[in-house]
C-alpha cells in the first residue's frame, strides 16, 4: 500500500509542526520574552496602564495588570500561543487521520497525540534554563487541541452543507430547464 501525495504532505506538516513546537520549547525564556518589545513600542504611553484591574494566579504567582501590565500581557500572549500551536497540531492530526478514522475514535486518537506531544514538550522544557514544566500547561495545550479539532469538524460540516446545497440548487435548475 502506497501513501498518497496528500497523505504524505499532511504527515510531513504534522511532523514539521511538532518539531517547531519542540524548537520553541527548547529556547530559554529570555529569548522568547516579548516584554522588551512591549516596553519599546508602548513604553510609558499609559496604554497598558489603562487596562482593567485583572489578576491571574499561575505557578503560585499572581500576575496583575496593575502591578506589571507588561508581564500580564506577555502571559496572555504566551498562553494564546500555546492554544494556537496545539490547535494547529490537532487540526493537522485531524486532517491526516480523518480519511481513515471517524467520530469518537478520531477524537481519542487526535487528543492522545496532542496530550503526548504536550507532555513530552513539558518534559523537554524542564531541561531548559529559565523554563518551568507545569501540568497545567498540558491542560492548556489540550484545550488548544480541542479547539483545533472542533474547528476542523465545523469546517468539514460547513463543506458538506454547502456542497449539498449547491448540488440541490443545480438539480432544481436542471428540473426547471433553466440553463442560464
TrEMBL record:
<dbReference type="InterPro" id="IPR006976">
    <property type="entry name" value="VanZ-like"/>
</dbReference>
<protein>
    <submittedName>
        <fullName>VanZ family protein</fullName>
    </submittedName>
</protein>
<feature type="transmembrane region" description="Helical">
    <location>
        <begin position="106"/>
        <end position="123"/>
    </location>
</feature>
<keyword id="KW-0472">Membrane</keyword>
<keyword id="KW-0812">Transmembrane</keyword>
<dbReference type="Pfam" id="PF04892">
    <property type="entry name" value="VanZ"/>
</dbReference>
<keyword id="KW-1133">Transmembrane helix</keyword>
<feature type="transmembrane region" description="Helical">
    <location>
        <begin position="143"/>
        <end position="162"/>
    </location>
</feature>
<feature type="transmembrane region" description="Helical">
    <location>
        <begin position="80"/>
        <end position="99"/>
    </location>
</feature>
<feature type="domain" description="VanZ-like">
    <location>
        <begin position="12"/>
        <end position="154"/>
    </location>
</feature>
Amino acid at each position: 500500500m502506497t501513501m498518497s501525495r496528500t497523505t504524505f504532505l499532511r504527515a510531513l506538516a504534522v511532523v514539521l509542526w511538532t518539531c517547531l513546537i519542540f524548537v520553541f520549547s527548547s529556547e530559554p525564556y529570555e529569548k522568547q520574552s516579548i516584554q522588551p518589545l512591549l516596553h519599546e513600542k508602548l513604553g510609558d504611553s499609559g496604554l497598558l496602564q489603562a487596562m482593567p484591574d485583572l489578576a491571574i494566579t499561575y505557578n503560585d504567582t499572581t500576575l496583575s495588570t496593575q502591578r506589571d501590565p507588561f508581564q500580564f500581557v506577555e502571559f496572555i500572549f504566551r498562553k494564546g500561543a500555546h492554544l494556537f500551536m496545539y490547535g494547529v497540531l490537532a487540526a493537522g492530526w485531524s486532517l491526516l487521520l480523518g480519511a481513515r478514522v471517524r467520530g469518537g475514535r478520531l477524537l481519542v486518537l487526535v487528543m492522545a497525540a496532542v496530550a503526548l506531544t504536550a507532555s513530552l514538550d513539558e518534559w523537554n522544557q524542564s531541561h531548559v534554563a529559565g523554563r518551568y514544566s507545569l501540568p497545567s500547561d498540558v491542560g492548556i495545550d489540550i484545550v488548544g487541541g480541542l479547539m483545533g479539532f472542533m474547528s476542523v469538524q465545523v469546517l468539514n460540516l460547513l463543506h458538506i452543507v454547502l456542497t449539498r446545497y449547491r448540488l440541490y440548487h443545480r438539480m432544481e435548475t436542471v428540473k426547471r430547464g433553466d440553463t442560464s
